[in-house]
Each structure stands twice: as structure tokens, then as C-alpha cells.
Design goal:
Layout lengths: L2 H9 L4 E4 L6 E6 L2 E7 L6 E5 L2 H10 L4 E3 L8 E5 L6 H17 L3 H7 L3
Antiparallel strand pairs: 1-2, 2-3, 3-4, 4-6, 5-6
Length: 119
């Protein structure tokens, strides 16, 4: 997956936005003010920090050793750093990004979740 494809994927979700609160190089993708992905789109290798269910996080780290690691500068229980541009199938990367978005949305107040379901 290329940086352009990763950005397009993250922005394809309902109410998703890209912000740069840390540095001009670090894209932070949010839904209603809550982060679901973080990536330096110019870095090589391209990696993304993604939220993950704690049990899945551990399983993925074991299954994709070196390509999925505990989240860099994040809560290591809930976040993984995923190597996006090689080694992992694009379909899996898409699934992990979508899961991250879904986990963040699930943690939103009910009224905000309901607003996301409407155009």
C-alpha cells in the first residue's frame, strides 16, 4: 500500500479528517475529534499506528512478527504500529485500518455514533 492509498483509505470513512497536531509530516486521522490512525506518510518503511482490540493486538504481533509491533509512543495494550508498504497483504492492512476506525467509533457517545450513520 502506498502513502497515497493509505491516506485515501483513512479519509474514506464517514466524518474522517486529516490533521497535523504534532509535526507537518505526521498525519493524524480522526473521527469526530478522536484519533484512529497516525502515520508519517513520507517515512520509509511506511508505518501506521492503529488502534486494536488488546487480544487481537497480541495475536497479530505474534503472527506478523516484525511487521506488527506494539504501538510506537502509544498505549501498547491498545495500539499497534503496522508496516504498511510491504510484507502484509493490502487486504489485511485495509481490515486493520477499518477495525481501528470502528473501535474508535464504538467508544463515541451514542448520539455521535448515530450522527455518523446519517449522510
Amino acid at each position: 500500500m502506498t502513502p497515497r492509498e493509505l491516506r485515501a483509505l483513512c479519509l474514506s470513512f464517514n466524518a474522517a479528517v486529516e490533521e497535523f497536531p504534532f509535526t507537518p509530516r505526521t498525519s493524524v486521522f480522526k473521527v469526530l475529534g478522536r484519533m484512529f490512525a497516525l502515520a508519517d506518510l513520507d517515512a520509509r518503511p511506511l508505518t501506521a499506528n492503529l488502534k486494536c482490540d488488546p487480544e487481537d493486538a497480541v495475536r497479530l504481533r505474534g503472527e506478523y512478527e516484525g511487521l506488527v509491533i506494539p504501538g510506537y509512543h502509544m498505549n501498547k495494550r491498545h495500539w499497534n504500529t503496522v508496516t504498511v508498504d510491504g510484507g502484509l497483504p493490502d487486504g489485511l492492512v485495509r481490515e486493520l485500518v477499518e477495525d481501528s476506525y470502528d473501535l474508535v467509533v464504538a467508544g463515541l457517545p451514542r448520539a455521535e455514533r448515530l450522527r455518523l450513520d446519517r449522510p
